[in-house]
Amino acid sequence: MALFRTAEIIKASKLPPEGVKLSRMIDAVYFLPIAYFGVFATFHMHFDLLAGDWDFWVDWKDRQFWVTVTPIVEVMYPGAIMYYFWTFYRQPFGATLSITGLLVGKWITIVFAWYWWANFPANFVMPATMVSSALILDCTLLLTRSWMLTAIFGVWAFAMMFNPTQYAIFGYSHQPVVVDGQLLSLADYMGFTFVRTGTPEYIRIIEVGSLRTFGGHTVWISAFFSAFVSMLVFTIWWQIGHFVGQSFFWVKGKRGVMRRMNDTMIVGTDEFAQRHGTPDGIAPGARVAARTAATTIS
Amino acid sequence: MNAKNIFKLCVIGSLGMATLGLTLAFNVSTAAAHGERSQEPFLRMRTAQWYDTRWNPQKTAVNDEAMLSGKIHISEDWPRAVIKPNRTFINVGSPSSVFTRLSSKVNGVPMFTSGPMEIGGDYEYVIKLRGRLPGHHHIHPMLAVNGAGPIAGPGGWMDITGNYKDFTNPVKLLVGGTADTETAGMAAGLFWHIVWGTLGFLWIAWFSIRPMFLIRARVLAQEGGDALLNDPVDRVVAFGMLGVCFVLIAIGFFYTDSQYPYTIPLQAGEPKIKATHLKSDLTVKVLAADYDVPGRALRMTLQVTNSGEQPLMIGEFTTAGIRFLNKVGVANNMDPTYPPEIMAQDGLHIEDESPINPGETREVKLDSRDSLWEVQRLMDLVHDPDQRFGGLIMAWDEAGNRHINSIAGNIIPVFTRATAS
């Protein structure tokens, strides 16, 4: 018994062998240069503009703003990309593709911009990783097959797992040090010791002690709030994916009336020609005739 | 391809070759300053007034310590255009972190975080540095003001010799042991990035080894396509992946927690720094000032009263970190290590050079004249929307005691040689 249903799926696609071969070539060309690099380049820019400094510097990774902002910003692109991959292909790797893509961009920046160009050590500019959260999100979508349940449970876990995941990477930076009689965390001292001419200390947007009324559980309060906002943001970006990811044709019917056809996969088939007719002078039933009926792609 | 196109390509190619040739022919040197001259003169003259800046020593080795120190006076004539210094940070202007900063004290108070400064206040800063990246570096003290940006002090050259690979920056931990800021947490960070990255790529690869897009899209468009694409093996893998994720997160969290049982949040308090104030037996009032554009001179008419018991002689006018001295200033306050490119040793001229006697009030005509006004782009004052100048006047008594006054006033530009004379 085969591990996958690949043979059945190929059979159901009704593509000839050369079509299957061509589709795999399209997979390679489309997936790597276009989907992957396109996503990581734009997501990287998007993320750095909205949450860049929290991710750049170890002394910005606080319990309040970093924990709140990062999941909210990191769930945006996955929302839209997941819509696209899931709705059109039932592929459950939109979030992982987005987040690993972001990290590929991040590490290129760390090596070439931060280390090679600006001479900061990698530990000082180490980014957070949300690949764990992205995997949870993708798995939730695959298992529930519902974007609403994914938004409620998957995105909740996406944001809530942020801090425990990062603690393994940045826990060391919260060790206390005393310099000149003043208590600092190691992260504070690293931010101080590595001179950043254009980033004075007050630029940091970090917790200043304003969440005391919540019993000092700043991290979890921030994470819950982040999870709540992330759910909302995810649904908005899922809908953005829906808005920009629509695929339809404008088709000229038998009486010359233009109609919007959402069922794009039917275009080019005999069934399409039988249902919607063909342009004048072309006999129904001919595939080529049906293909030429699709006049405009939006 | 016709002849016209060939001609066009030849022209473009020739231009390209010419550009390459020019690039190779000219000496393209490294940019080594921080754009301090591009800041508006009114900003440089009337915000932080820097003096006694020292870069000591000017030559250090990797891992050796150096000191950047000096004083700033927060001008009473703080410009309208600049946010008041309610949150400031003493910083270092350097091309990346060529030094690491070990400590920073302002009026004896550690300044790890930012805090307020008082207009009219005087602050002495001492920044302890450790050589990190070998090279010839231009280093400025810098006052960063929240909402206003960085205000660069005078820049001096510091050399670091040795090899970066030898650099270490250990800091003692409160609970024992040390951490090197250059490498702390690096192994754990790389390890977890590799672990999660690998899992992420494996997850994508799991779906990439099968037809990904076109075939699935065609199947999905058919009735029953969704069920066909719901491969049971994917569901098993997804359950497994969820488990792996939660277990790995828990392992990472609890292992790290056991490694570092004592942790604290980022510290965001502010230092409470008490200002000192300039002391002077002189009272100085600006009666008039003009800027002689062609003569590159700032000419001031000051009303000066000596309320002390010693005769005083004016020896220096300093503004924007640029020093104009006469022989009195050279005798009393000449620092041979001060960068010569921002100091005019014979740049200050006084009409009547006799001492200002105790109790005397005198009108003093002071002329600070040097090409530095142009080289340092302070002549751009004439293009500013705020035509006022500021600076520090320094005078000395016979015993060598210094008296410093911060001055500021309106300034009138003089555009032609005829009217300037």
Write a concise synopsis of the structure shown.
The complex is a heterodimer of chains A (298) and B (421). In chain A, the strands form 2 sheets. A 3-stranded antiparallel sheet of chain A has the order 4-3-5.
Topology:
The complex is a heterodimer of chains A (298) and B (421).
Chain A: H1 6-13, H2 17-56, H3 65-74, H4 76-89, H5 94-117, H6 131-144, H7 147-160, H8 162-170, E1 176-179, E2 182-185, H9 186-193, H10 218-244, E3 249-252, E4 258-261, H11 270-276, H12 287-293, E5 294-297
Antiparallel strand pairs in A: 1-2, 3-4, 3-5
Chain B: H1 3-25, H2 41-45, E1 48-56, E2 59-61, E3 65-74, E4 88-93, E5 99-106, E6 109-110, E7 122-131, E8 135-145, E9 149-152, E10 156-161, E11 170-172, E12 178-180, H3 186-208, H4 214-220, H5 225-229, H6 232-259, E13 282-292, E14 297-306, E15 313-319, E16 322-325, H7 327-333, E17 343-344, E18 348-350, E19 361-369, H8 372-375, E20 388-396, E21 402-410, E22 412-414, H9 417-420
Parallel strand pairs in B: 2-10, 13-22, 16-17
Antiparallel strand pairs in B: 1-3, 3-7, 4-8, 5-6, 5-7, 8-9, 8-10, 11-12, 13-14, 14-19, 15-16, 15-20, 18-19, 20-21
Give an overview in words.
The complex is a heterodimer of chains A (298) and B (421). With 298 residues, chain A is mostly helical. In chain A, 61% of the residues lie in helices and 7% in strands. Chain A has 12 helices and 5 strands. In chain A, the strands form 2 sheets. In chain A, strands 4-3-5 form a 3-stranded antiparallel beta sheet. In chain A, α4 crosses α5 (94-117). Chain A is elongated and about 85 Å long. Chain B has 421 residues and is α+β, with helices and mostly antiparallel strands. Chain B folds into 3 domains: 35-174, Jelly Rolls (Sandwich), CATH 2.60.120; 186-259; 282-414, Particulate methane monooxygenase, b subunit. Chain: A, domain 3 (Immunoglobulin-like). In chain B, a hairpin with a 3-residue loop joins β8 (135-145) and β9 (149-152). The relative contact order of chain B is 0.14. Chains A and B meet through α1, α2, α5, α6 and α8 of A and β4, β5, α3, α4 and α5 of B.
